[in-house]
Design brief:
mainly beta, 7-stranded mixed β-sheet, 4-stranded antiparallel β-sheet, 11 strands
Length: 123
């Protein structure tokens, strides 16, 4: 079993930056690729980005490419989502998740999920 706790969300003006963190604990002998998703009110949860187990590969949704960066520190069992150039349409609850295997944008491929952290971008 793996527990994930996101933090770092908040209110920011358009064009600003935030860094989200996702701390993992529990039975994490082998943490696979991890991903970030987001869900805005009334919308389905959507893929934001994913990072490989070693951190050498990343994959982003087109909507955030060039603005968001995922990184991980396996020694600290933490994954980060650095967000810059934020837009009002980035407003959502952001979730981190552990993939069953490699990096992927398929929601069903993720096994464990955090509780989410709210990001609100004002115009």
């Amino acid at each position: 079993q793996v527990q994930l706790v996101e933090s770092g969300g908040g209110l920011v003006q358009a064009g600003g930056s935030l860094r989200l963190s996702c701390a993992a604990s529990g039975s994490i002998l082998n943490i696979n690729a991890m991903g970030w998703f987001r869900q805005a009110p009334g919308k389905e949860r959507e893929f934001v980005g994913s990072i490989s187990r070693g951190g050498g590969s990343t994959y982003y949704a087109d909507s955030v490419k060039g603005r968001f960066t995922i990184s991980r520190d396996n020694a600290k069992k933490t994954v980060y989502l650095q967000m810059s150039g934020l837009k009002p349409e980035d407003t959502a609850v952001y979730y981190c998740a552990v993939s069953r295997s490699g990096i992927t944008d398929r929601r069903g491929a993720y096994l464990y999920w955090g509780q989410g952290t709210q990001v609100t971008v004002s115009s």
